[in-house]
Amino acid sequence: MKKVLVFLFISAFVLRCSNTNGPTNKKDCNYSDTISSPFPTKIFENQRISPDGEKIAYNVSKRYIEILHLKTGKISQYNIISRLPSNVRFLGVGYNEWCPYNPNRLLVHCATSTDLVGDGKKYSYGQNLYLLSIIDSELKCITPIKYGKAGADGLPFPIWLSGSNENYDSLHFIAHYVGKDLGIFIPQTQEWIKSSYNDFYLQSKKSKHILGFKPSQIIDSGSYYIDNKKIITTENISILNCASFSPNEKYLALSLQADSATRAKPNRKFTEIWIIDVEKYLANYPKPAEVKVINILYEFCMITIAGSVEFITDNTLAVSMRHIGELTENIWEISVDGQLIRNLTNE
Predict the structure, then answer these.
(1) In the chain, what are the domain boundaries?
(2) Is the peptide bond before 144 cis (omega within 30 degrees of 0)?
(3) pLDDT, tens digit, 9 for 90 and up, residues 72-121
(4) What is the pTM of this model?
(5) Fewest C-beta atoms under 10 Å: which of 21, 27, 91, 223?
(6) In what order do the strands lie in the sheet with 139-141?
């Protein structure tokens, strides 16, 4: 009987994570439906893999955070509203980032409004950073105090640098969003340290590689760099949604929209995933990078609003996307060679 129950549990989990819920054969896909496809009412996005590779944290329609345990399929939900002070109203959750040295701690970006007077009449808008413990659900605000009690008018989300520890965390704010506050923030001491990498955008797991960005005067334009070497491709990047290095630091995945000339081509109008072999590119620089393009519309008959992508193993990615016409944008696992594996959130 015990063996039967175990089999049923495993079968249920496999079914839950492998259901495709829509046409994945290219011949069955009606690409013209993308024009009239409704906006999703539920979006699973901003997924991040834990340092130990066992959990994925993501937010659901910017309302709350969920954590998926990859081995068991168990999902834990964290409602930020119930953990805020009584004078603070929750407006939405943005990004989240795992602590590099503690797999049970998250850095969370939230928009809030705060009653600073205490009369319950006037609330001040602010963006804030919180530390969330997934063990006891404790929530601690670590927004730089210079922004005031309500938080910042606009607060870019930082990257939590490896090398941080319990007594000295280093939060590197993304350069092209941060303006005058460019640099590294130390929550424990409220220090701001000037960064030696002004174009910082993302670091690989063990800091072997850094992705940089230099903005242009042209809207949605700029240049991207791997270890200060410009990414040269035969097709250019117009809008970068997000990026992720593989755990072994060999590959870089970019969720993006290509330049207008590329988007004018049939079935190239929407978000794509580009995979670059980092070591190979750096070794052959300045030759153009060999890019593996995963066209999610053409390959899977899917589209995306969030455009979120994250490596979860050295060979697989977690991508936010949905079938044409669906109202829920789930997180799917795909391989780096463009194979659809399973629906991780399955709603």
Answers:
(1) 23-42+208-347
(2) no
(3) 999 999 999 999 999 999 999 999 999 999 999 999 999 999 999 988 88
(4) 0.87
(5) 27
(6) 88-98, 105-114, 124-133, 139-141
